[in-house]
Amino acid sequence: MRVSYVTVRKRLTLVLLIGFFIFAIIDVRLGYVQFALGEMLTERAKDLWSRNIPFEPERGEILDRNGVPLATNVSAPSVLVVPRQIENPAETAEKLANILNMPVEKVYKHLTKKTSIERIHPEGRKISHEKAKEIRALGLKGVYIAEDSKRYYPFGSYLSHVLGFAGIDNQGLMGLELYYDKELSGQKGSVQFYSDAKGKRMPDMADAYTSPVDGLNLKLTIDTRVQTILERELDIAETTYRPDGMIAIAMNPNNGEILGMASRPTFDPADFQNVPPEVFNRNLPIWSTYEPGSTFKIITLAAALEEKKVDLLRDHFYDSGHVHVAGATLHCWKRGGHGSQSFLEVVQNSCNPGFVELGERLGKEKLFEYIKAFGFGEKTGIDLQGEGKGILFPLHRVGPVEQATTAFGQGVAVTPIQQVAAVAAAVNGGFLYTPYIAKEWLDPVTGEVVRRQTPQVKRRVISEETSKQIRYALESVVAQGTGKGAFVDGYRVGGKTGTAQKAKDGQYLKNNHIVSFIGFAPADAPQLVVYVAVDNPKGTVQFGGVVAAPIVGNIMEDSLRALGVKPRKEQMEKETTWLDPRLVKIPNLIGLTKKDLQQQLFNLKLDVSGEGDVVIEQAPEPGVKVKEGATIRIYLGTKR
Predict the structure, then answer these.
(1) pLDDT score of 377 more than 90
(2) What is the pTM of this model?
(3) Does residue 516 have an active-site annotation?
(4) Domain residues for 94?
């Protein structure tokens, strides 16, 4: 059957149109792929070809308030391998094993893993620059040295529980390193190179570098001058008393800034792997919970004064040595009691029955209202991991005996940081601050402040007038009461001793106490609060006034001088005992001649220098109290 020419043309035209339509669709698709999807597909292809060598950011440094580095970084290269690029795994493994001091078989397993990039872990992590140089010199294909760093703590165990430590991947694991890990960590960078399916580098494609973003630097409220003094005194006490543990905290009572914090036992953050977890996991100043003993009497005193339940000078109390409460006999620490005393003397003598009386005048509801207002029974909110909140009796379970023992610091459990914050509120005018330790966040390049922590007032607990009376009473404790060991000539120091029995299995231990002292100075305008607790000191009488008070006195004297607080001549006169060294005031020798000096009658030694007949300089200056027999340095010159 013949097909007409017209039919053939129609069919050819139809085929042609269909062909044009198909090619149009292909062209549109190619154009769409080329122009619309081209960049995305290229990136996907690059992802298939690409291999990333990571570059770790510099972890932010931790500095004290004056810029002294407490935690920094040191360069520590790491070994990376691209298994598909390694030509002779056995030979490469042997060469690397010799340098990295590891079994050849272990290296070989890393080199033959079916991964794009493999870390030799842990032997190839954070290696020395000498080892890195040796590996580079071998020129092994597929073996790379990546820039890396590790944490460095220049002062060793100094401030260890506060700083904490970082792991091998520079991740924070404890302390501030963990609490502020996100801010300190920064963002990773990388070098990206391209290789084919066999892992060989593609020479016609340039490497891509993404720079890491370093972490922010953290400036603390810690003052290394104060911290050094705390560490020194704890070291001395550890040698002297061989205690089970020790705690020291120094805080600015006017804003909550922690100036120093230390504890024993301690550890080196760079060697935390070889330290028992119970040592590095427990930051005792914020974690440890125990009965406070007589330091807690400050809270009872504050409540009684604020509620006008007592007049320190006019009201009197007779202490027979014990008091009966609901069938229980509660004893004073002094056998036979203190007899008749004013309530100021009750505070000075740390008389338990006297504070039982104050507790009864307050009543349990009002007493516990103030205890909670001062922050006990809840966390202070300090920016450190692992804070405890203490233990208080539920109010419905508080009977007469529980009320009485709570009034003098037994039957409740508190943390050291709670006590410091509460006493700071008692002496600073009545304001309870949240303690904090992170002061500022700094840009690591410019050093500019990115973010600043400001003091946080939780509430006002007592009035300024009540706070003034507390300061006066506690200054008298140091000058004339149980806290004489903390007396510092030239500085008005106030404070309170504490001697707390330790309980185990529901019973108090014998001859096993936590002795403590909390002090502040200057007493009329406090700039510093210091708390020290010593757990079970050996070879001594276990009283806070004997063990802890002198430690606080030493810390106070040196810290106040370091902080620029000048000594003053006006202070409450210390009541001396036969154990105290006799003090004499240095006379004014300036202007006296050699002959005049020979006629002076004082029990002091002279260290004379200079040529001349007249005293033109002396040290210490006139009016300063020193021990009898101390040396005065004088300089002789000519009279002007």
Answers:
(1) yes
(2) 0.79
(3) no
(4) 51-220
